[in-house]
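Incident log, support desk, overnight shift.

02:14 A customer reports that sequence design results differ from what the structure should imply. Their input is reproduced verbatim below. On-call engineer (initials T.W.) acknowledged and began investigating.
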């Protein structure tokens, strides 16, 4: 349901408590725990409070586009969510990475371009051009975002809900390096689930990947945060958002650059 832009700190705290506890206990939620944030400021307040509660450091960020029909209420082109260091994996094309998801919640695999950040960004620069963002690229890789939330309907509730629950992220896989990325205009990818073809598409290097990095640099500065050397930025889906279940396998094939293979496993409770 739609929310109020004037949600109290207690309302925000209740949303955060429910999502963080469900993630730590690896259990599903039946309903959104409160009123869905009706504006970006409230949604990111939830995210910031949840980050403070989570027992791991941020190792990067996922980026996703906000659908055009939602931008009147959430007036930005993209949204971001933290990727925590324990959920960031590096893999070659012949490696199968185990990706935990919340049984009974939302789970999807997304083929993406992943950028590794070259150096720490300034804290006060809120607007970035693509050329400025390019100067912070350490390397570019094929990759996968593992999206998962304890709430199965999270994506259907819109950007406010997605942002409030860590951007619906539960892992980033950094695959083979795209060494010639500066000479490319786009990268093509296909996704297979249990061997069946489920999607294909292309991603723009400049407007897509660098655009996502530029947005993240600015959004983090706006929130009083920086990107750091070695952080990974998962820059947005290429072939679509593909639902998966525990026990399934996925294979994302990037034309000329290799593939990323995942085995979907059940998330377990965290005691840390």
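02:41 Re-run completed on a clean worker. Output:
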């Amino acid at each position: 349901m739609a929310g109020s832009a004037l949600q109290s700190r207690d309302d925000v705290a209740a949303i955060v408590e429910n999502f963080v506890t469900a993630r730590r206990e690896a259990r599903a939620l039946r309903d959104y725990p409160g009123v869905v944030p009706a504006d970006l400021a409230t949604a990111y307040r939830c995210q910031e409070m949840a980050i403070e509660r989570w027992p791991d450091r941020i190792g990067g960020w996922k980026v996703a586009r906000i659908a055009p029909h939602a931008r009147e209420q959430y007036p930005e082109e993209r949204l971001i969510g933290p990727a925590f260091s324990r959920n960031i994996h590096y893999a070659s094309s012949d490696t199968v990475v185990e990706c935990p998801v919340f049984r009974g919640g939302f789970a999807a695999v997304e083929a993406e371009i992943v950028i590794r950040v070259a150096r720490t960004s300034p804290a006060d620069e809120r607007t970035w051009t693509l050329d400025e963002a390019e100067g912070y690229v350490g390397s570019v890789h094929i990759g996968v975002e593992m999206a998962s939330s304890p709430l199965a309907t999270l994506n259907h509730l819109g950007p406010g809900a997605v942002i409030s629950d860590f951007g619906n992220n539960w892992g980033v896989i950094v695959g083979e390096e795209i060494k010639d990325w500066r000479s490319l205009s786009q990268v093509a990818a296909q996704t297979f689930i249990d061997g069946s073809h489920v999607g294909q598409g292309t991603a723009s290097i400049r407007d897509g990947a660098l655009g996502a990095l530029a947005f993240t640099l600015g959004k983090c500065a706006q929130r009083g945060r920086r990107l750091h050397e070695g952080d990974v930025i998962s820059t947005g889906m290429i072939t679509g958002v593909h639902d998966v279940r525990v026990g399934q396998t996925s294979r994302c094939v990037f034309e000329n650059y290799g593939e990323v293979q995942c085995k979907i496993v059940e998330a377990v409770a965290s005691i840390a």
